[in-house]
Amino acid sequence: MAKGSTQKTASATIAVYSLKGGVGKTTMSVNLAWASACISRRRTLLWDLDPQAASSWLLSTDQTSRDAAQAIFSKDVEVKKLIQPSTVPGLDLIAADTSLRGLDHLFREMDKKKRLAKLIESLGRDYDRIILDCPPGLTETSEQVLRAADLIVIPVIPSPLSQRAMGEVARYLVQRGGAHAPILPVYSMVDRRRSLHRAALESQTGWPAIPMASTIEQMTVRRKPLGAFAPASPSAQAFASLWTQVERQLSGR
Q: Which of 43, 29, 251 is nearest to 129 (CA)?
């Protein structure tokens, strides 16, 4: 288990979610998890729910494929048995694998709308921050995620299609009725040389923004979060600033 800080704090779950793929979701999940563990010294768990397992590939210390990630939800495997230390000190990981491709079907069969929330509740005694790297789409899995999260971080590329997808999520939450976790939209892959991106930034001046940068691309080569190899880079500083905003929003719950 992650050692982290001895500071008492209420556990919180942050879902990094988008209706669309290819918007920088994994990059955001990994760097926020690093910030939680290494800047805030929180006991942090990154739970990879995406069958593409990109976060797992970047951070896992165990590269053997177990095909057991779905078994957590069907109760065949106790959730804590799949927790492993990541390559980042203080950050633990529940890795994804290809078995998660059938997760939507399993949730429909089980008909337990808060299964993920119950599992997260059981982990809350061991972790201050649980970060979910979620698969794209509006599915049974995303339903579980939206019920379980205390904050939903949505990466948005500064383009009409990506902004439309974010709007669809917001409308969906309203249509569901009742209380729901607050949404924090974040512009990702921002290229200020492009007029479309500049216009988007000007239209939503309050949204955090993460730049497009070669240092971010280096994450897949080094298999490390930005803070571990380029902490002074503008991109790493942007993620640190985003994490500060996440913590500020959680403290206002």
A: 43
**pTM of model > 0.85:** yes
Concatenating the DSSP letter of every residue in 179-228 gives ----EEEEEEEE-TTSHHHHHHHHH-TTS-EEE--HHHHTHHHHTS-HHH
Contact between 63 and 110 (Cβ < 8 Å): no
Does 4 map to a domain?
no
The yes-or-no verdict on residue 8 having pLDDT over 70 is: no
**Segment 76-96, tens digit of pLDDT:** 788 999 999 999 999 999 999
- State how far the Cα of 226 lies from the Cα of 215, in Å rounded to an integer: 7
**Locus of tokens 């290819």:** 22
Q: How many domains does the chain have?
A: 1
> Which CATH number fits the domain that encloses residue 38?
3.40.50.300
- Residue 193: count of CB within 10 angstroms of its CB: 8
E runs forming strands in 91-182: 91-94, 129-133, 151-156
**Does 1 reside within a domain?**
no
What does residue 47 show for φ and ψ, rounded to 5 degrees?
-110, 110
Rg from Cα positions in the chain: 17
| Residue 7 in domain | no
Number of H helices, E strands in the chain: 11, 8
Tell me which residue of 204, 169, 172 sits closest to 187, measured CA to CA: 204
Structural domain range at position 142: 12-252
Which residues neighbour 5 within 8 Å (Cβ) at sequence distance 6 or greater?
A: 40, 41, 42, 43, 128
Amino acid at 23: V
Instruction: Tell me whether residue 229 is in a domain.
Output: yes
- pLDDT 10s digits, 223-245: 999 999 999 999 999 999 999 99
